[in-house]
Input
Amino acid sequence: MFEIISLKNGLENVDGFFFDGVNSGFKKEGNDLGFIRSDEPFNISAVFTTNKFAAAPIKHFKKYPPNFKSNFILLNSKNANAMTGEQGVADIDELFSSLATKIKLVNPIMSSTGVIGYRLNKEKIIAGFDKFNFACRNSNAVATAIMTTDSFKKELAFKVELEDGKSFNIAAICKGAGMINPALATMLCYILTDAKIPKDDADELLKEAVEQSFNTVSVDGDTSTNDTVMLLSSQKAAYEKTAFKTALDMITKQFALMLVRDGEGSSKVVCFEVSGAKTQAQAKKAAKALSNSPLVKTAIFGEDPNWGRIASTIGASGVECFEESLVIKYDDVLVYDKFNPELDKEREEKAHKIMQKDSFKISCDLGMGSAKFSAYGCDLSYEYVKINADYRS
Amino acid sequence: MFEIISLKNGLENVDGFFFDGVNSGFKKEGNDLGFIRSDEPFNISAVFTTNKFAAAPIKHFKKYPPNFKSNFILLNSKNANAMTGEQGVADIDELFSSLATKIKLVNPIMSSTGVIGYRLNKEKIIAGFDKFNFACRNSNAVATAIMTTDSFKKELAFKVELEDGKSFNIAAICKGAGMINPALATMLCYILTDAKIPKDDADELLKEAVEQSFNTVSVDGDTSTNDTVMLLSSQKAAYEKTAFKTALDMITKQFALMLVRDGEGSSKVVCFEVSGAKTQAQAKKAAKALSNSPLVKTAIFGEDPNWGRIASTIGASGVECFEESLVIKYDDVLVYDKFNPELDKEREEKAHKIMQKDSFKISCDLGMGSAKFSAYGCDLSYEYVKINADYRS
Output
C-alpha cells in the first residue's frame, strides 16, 4: 500500500534539480527561455512526436547514445526550430558551446516550441544566458517560459509515501494549447522525480502513461513537430513500481485534461467514450474521429444536442457498426437507440442542459463487442479561428 | 473529334425528362420538395456515401435488383431520413403508395438531405404532392428544392457534338455546402442525359468521374449519411464514349469546385497539390490531410503564409517524406526548400498577396517519387463556426 499526497507549487518539490526562466526578448513580456538542470547527471526517458518532420531539438537528442545521462535541458518558446535542417541542429550545438563557458554541461538537451520555419536567434538566446541564475529553484519561472498560447500555467507535484515509511516525490510542468493531436498531444512536458526508478521501468511506464493520457486528447487533430514528454530521475529517494505508476498516471492524465481545458478557444471538455467495439483499435478510431470532427465540435460549441452528427461521424469513421445496435447518451440521457430513434422535447431539453456544463460525456455503445476507448476533446469556437488566423501577428 | 458547347439553364436541355419543385412547408420560403421523372423508365448509375449509417433512401434504393430502371426520383431537403431504421424505409414506400394514385410509378427512388434522426413528416409531403405539376420542366424549381445551406444554385448543361454530325446533351443539378468530406463530398447530384450510353459505360464513367472530382474536395472532412450522385439516361440521342467521359468529367469537376466555393463559411478555394510522392495513395493522403487540417484552414482564412503548418501537416500525415527533399510553393512563389528554409520578407509579402486571392494553389513536392494528387479545400472561418453551431435553430 502507498499514499499519494498532493503538494503545493511545482518542481521545487523534487530535490537535486535547479530551474529558472528569463525573458530574452522574444516575448513582449513574460519568460521565453528557461532551463532544468542538476549537478549530478539525471536519467532520462523521453517520448517524442510521430511527425516525420521532427524538430531540430529532437534530432539533436537522438544523436546521443541510448541510455545517455544529461545534466541540462534548455527550453525556449516563440520559435520551434523545426524545418531548419542541419543548421537547426548545429545552432543547438553552438548555443551549448557558449553556455559551456558558464556552467559544466553533460550531454545537454534542448526543447523548443513556437513558430515553424525560422532559425533560432542565437545572439538573443546567448544574451539571455547572462540572466540565468543556475542556483535558482523557481518552478514558476520555467513553467511560464515554455507557455505559448496557453492561458494558464501547468504544474503538478505529489509526494508518494510507501509502506515502509520511505517516500519519493514527483513533480512536473507542461505546456499545450494548439496543435493538440491524435498521435501525441502537441506539448512539452517535463516530469522530475527523485525516485530510484530503473531506466527500463521509466521507459515502460512513461510510454504507457502517455498512451493513456496525452494520446487520448485532441484539440484540433494536428500533430506538432515538437511534442516532447520527458521523465527525469535523480535516483536519490525510494521507489516502488506500482506506486510510481499510479503517481505518473495521475500527473499525465491531469495534464492531458488541462491541455483540453486550455485548448485554443476551448470552452468545454468533452469525454467521447466509445464502448461495445469489436476491437480496441476500432474503439479508439471512432472515439478520436468524434473528438476531431468539426461538425461535432461546432455542435458542442452551440450546445445543440444534434446527435445525428455523432452517429454520422461514427458511421464515417470506418469502424464496424450497425444503426440497429448503436446507443448514444449524453451523460445519463439516452438520445438514440433503435427503440427511441427520435429525440423528444423532454430528452432534448435534458441533453441541452447537460451540454451547458463545462464538461460532460458523450457515450456511444456500438453493440458489436466489448472493447472501449475514451478520447477527450473540446468545442470549436470563434476564438479558435481567431487565435489561429492571427497566430503569428 | 467532338465539340462541347456550354448551354444556358439546366435540366431543360435534356429531352425526355420532367422536373419540378414546390414548397411543402419545411422551409419558411423556397422549395423543399421536388422530382425528376420521365415517361419511359430511364437507366440509372449511382454512387453513394461510404458512411456505414447510409440513410433510408439509400437503403430503399439498394432493395431494387441490379440494373433496374426507374421513372421517378422524389427529392426533399430539411430532413435527411437518416438513422430512422426500418421505419424510415417504410415511410418512403408509404409516400410512393400515395404518389402512385396521382402518377404511374416504376421503381421510384427518393433522395433526402437535411437533419439526421427524425422521421419524415409524411402528411406534409403528401400535401405537397398536390402542388406538383408532372408536366413541368422547371430546372430552377428542382435545383432550389434540394438546397440546404447552399448560398447559390448549382446547374450545368452541355451539348456534345460528335464528328458524324450527331449529338447528345448532358445537364445536371447539385447541392453541397456542409459535411463535405474525404470519401464522397456530402452532396446530392443528378446528371441527366439523352445519350444512348450502355449501362456498363455509365457505371464505369460515373465511378471514375466521382473519384476525380467530388472525392478530391473537402469542406470539413465529415462524410454525410446521404451522399448521392446519379446519372440518368433516356437513351434517345447519340453516344460516343470519349466525348461522354469528357463532358461528364467537366460537369463533376465544375460542381466539385462549386461545392468548395460554396462550402459553409468558405471565402477561398485552395488547390492542395502534392507531387513527388512514392505512391498515388500517399499523394492523396497528404493532400487530403492538408485540405482537412484546421490549422492550415485557419491560416488560409487569416491570409498568413505560415508554411510551417503545411510542412507539419504533411509530416503528421504518415506519408514517406524528408525535410531535405520537400519543396513548398504558393502558386509560383517558393516558400520552402532546403536551400531557402527561411521565408524572407520579400517572398513572404509575395505569398501573402497570393493568399489574398479568391483561389490559389499550395503545392508540395515530396521529392520521393512521381505520384501526384490534387485536393481542393477552403478556409475555416468564423462563419463556418456560426453556421454549424446554429444549424438546427
In short: DSSP finds eleven helices and 14 strands in chain B. Residues 2-261 of chain B form a domain with the L-amino peptidase D-ALA esterase/amidase fold (CATH 3.60.70.12). The first helix of chain B runs from residue 56 to 62.
